[in-house]
Each structure stands twice: as C-alpha cells, then as structure tokens.
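Subject: for your reference before the review

Hello V.,

The reviewers asked for a structural picture of the protein, and I figured it would be easier to keep everything in one thread rather than splitting it across files. Below is the amino acid sequence we used in the manuscript, unchanged from the supplementary table.
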Amino acid sequence: MLVAAAVCPCPPLLVPEVAAGAAPELDTARAACEDALGVLAAARPDRLIVVGPAEPSGRGPYPEGSHGSFRGFGVDLDVRLGEHGPGVDSSETSARELPLSLAVAAWLLRRTDWSYAPVEGLGVEERLSVERCLRAGEDIAARAGRVALLVMGDASACRTVKAPGYLDERAAEFDAGVARALGTADVAALKALDADLAYELKASGRASWHVLAGAAEGAGLGGALLYEDAPYGVGYLVTAWS
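And here is what came back from the structure prediction:
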C-alpha cells in the first residue's frame, strides 16, 4: 500500500547546471523538494516508484539504473535512476533513456543520496485517460507492502504573458485548486481534476497526479504544501503526503 508520496515540479531549470546564472531563482523550490524526499525516506518504504510525464515514445516502465541526460541543454550531465540504491550495477545501461521528467527526478534522488529502497520509474503520457491513470496508481500501490511515490509534473504554463502557453485567465484558479488538493491530500478533489482543461493549460503533471490519486485511495494519508509559486509563468508545486 502507499505509505508516502512527494509531488515535485520537473523543469530542467531545477538542475543548477542547466539553469546556470538563473539557478538561485529556484533555490527555494529545490530545498522544498529535498524536504519532500525526506518525508519519503522517513516512511521506510520497500519500494519507490517515480512517476512523470513523457512523450508517447517514452511512456511505460523504467527499471532501476535507467539512464538520463541533460546534454540536450548543452550540459555535460548524465544521471541514473536510483544510482545510489541497493542492487544498482553501474556497469550496466538501460536501453531506453529516461524522459526528461524522470531525469529530473533521478537528479533529485542523487542530490539527496537516496539509498533507502529500490527505485523504478513510470512515464505517463500527458493525454492518458483519467481511468487508466487511476488504474495504474492502484496497481502501483499493490506492488509491495510499503510503497512510496515520487510524482513529477508542473501545473499550468499559462500564468503570465511570457509563459510558454501565454496568459490564460483560467490558469491561476486551476493551479489554486491543484494546490489545495495536493496540499491536503484530498484524493476526491484530485480525481475530479478536469483533464481537458489541464491539457489546454499545459499542466504537464495532470496524468501523474491522477496516478497518485489512484494509488492513494484508502491509504488515509495527510498532506502538506511545501512550495507554491509560478516563476516564468509556470505553476510549480511541492507537497508531501504521509
């Protein structure tokens, strides 16, 4: 069953080497992500599953040790999923490269020296139906006696005129609703998120959040909102469930 979850944003700018001179702008977000991962470690899970948005070619499972890269951003930086965890053979390389969201997660896990439980990844397509996301979450929760989730994904990308999706007046209200649902571990409210509206607002985390809702059904977890802001016009949220 699900014993803990952390929700983090997944912009490549979260990685200081990618952000370069702008790195200090997300220092508070990075610190909140570290705190959220600390909640996962404190739960002493048997397994950690990392869920994040992916293109259709990147959907599906990723075993521990799968590799990712930020070379596409001009940075000589590679990561491996769960590279400090038990049973990882650094001499082996997974065939598929991690989607960017899972690469950011792998970087976060390396930054916090995650070594508390085996790690697996799951890339979910942005348009995956709510029903399939919920079923995937239910399957994840049944994987082990004590399962933890690291859920990657951004809120809307339409908060300002300079945002990737330009300004959409609906974005702030949508993000506020997501923050309430995630910050209070309100599974019913999370399930009720409008998938079509999320897609229109370019909220990449929607499918991942619905996977979390499926996994958390009946778990009785409480939530805490650790960070909420919209730098660059994109909503970033960090929450911890335990």
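For the response letter, the relevant points are probably these. The chain has eight helices and nine strands. The CA atoms of residues 195 and 215 lie 18 Å apart.

Happy to draft the paragraph if you're swamped.

O.
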